[in-house]
Write a structure and sequence with these properties.
Elements (H helix, E strand, L loop, with lengths): L1 H58 L4 H14 L3 E2 L2 H5 L4 E6 L2 E10 L3 E11 L10 E15 L2 E2 L3 E5 L12 E3 L9 E6 L12 H7 L5 E2 L3 E6 L3 H10 L32 E7 L10 E16 L9 E9 L6 E2 L8 E5 L2
Parallel strand pairs: 7-12
Antiparallel strand pairs: 1-2, 2-3, 3-4, 4-5, 5-15, 5-16, 6-10, 8-14, 9-11, 11-13, 12-13, 13-14
The structure holds zinc ion.
The site of zinc ion (ZN) has 6 residues, from loops.
Amino acid sequence: MRKLWKDEKGSVLLLTAVAMVVIFGFAALAIDGGNLYHQHMKLQDIADACALAGAQELAKGSEEDEATKVAKKYADNNGIIFEKIDDLNNSDSKANIKLGDDTGTIKISLIDDNKVKVELNVNTKNFFAGVLGFTSSDVAVASVAKYGVAQQQIEGVFPLAFIPDDKVEYKTGKEIELLFKEADKGNYGYLDFNHKKPYLSDQKFEETLEEGLDGPLSIGQDIYTQTGNEIKKLVEAFAAKGRLLAPKSYKVKNQHPVCKCTYNDYDEDCPRVITIVMVDKDVKFNGKTEVQIKGFVKIFVEGLESGDKPSDKDTLNVKYLETVDLGSPLGEGDDDGMIKAVRLVE
Ligand SMILES: [Zn+2]
């Protein structure tokens, strides 16, 4: 009996020891893990700030050296101490740093003339895990900021008007009546991007129906309606690009096979997905009418509702996909005289 008691006591002690190691291990994980997580967040914030500052400097048209220096200055402002003060002020891409008690490196590189990459690597001391042999951990973060044209402009828009209805909630897949069934003082829902000089591009109306406008449009811009029912031109243009299967009665010259996508499963570059112009819901049409661009809407072309022969009453069936958000992505290309913006890309 006594022996058994002793054994039980021994196993209790052993269990306690094992439990303590496990608990200690978890405590180490929780505290050091939390600390590392915090450190990671902090470094990421610093790297983001530095990259954005560098990209902002590039956007101003400064030399690459200047962008590097500005990025470093931001690191300095955010608690990064450069081991050599010279490293802070020169444009060398890599430098040794300190952050609190920790040491590490910063590396700043420029990519494609318009991106600034900041890499921070800091060796952080562990509180608890050190006892178990893990004295420190490397925390590495990277951030890339890019500058470009703030995309309040959009290219490739089709000359079709969408007039939103206040009473309707537009969700992906919502059927919308794109073209007016009946002429509204000569208007059928087409737009003329090139009515007045300076022309937005050299494209003819038919070409804008086929390709979309080859120049930029922006919200707030005034454009004109194209009067008359252009349904034959629309069917011709859409059939040629595989956006629409033309009814036989239209006798189109060039029917490209229609893409098999659906409105809820389509490729990025699907020809049936097009962007059109949202115009003021209160617009009063009267012949060729000036209308203001209120936004841009992405739609999926479903098909044509048609009778036995081409008719004014034929309507294009489309589904609403989304209202284009021009605020977030940055455009590429020529940026002279346009508003520039910077954003994080990684
Ligand atoms: Zn497709």
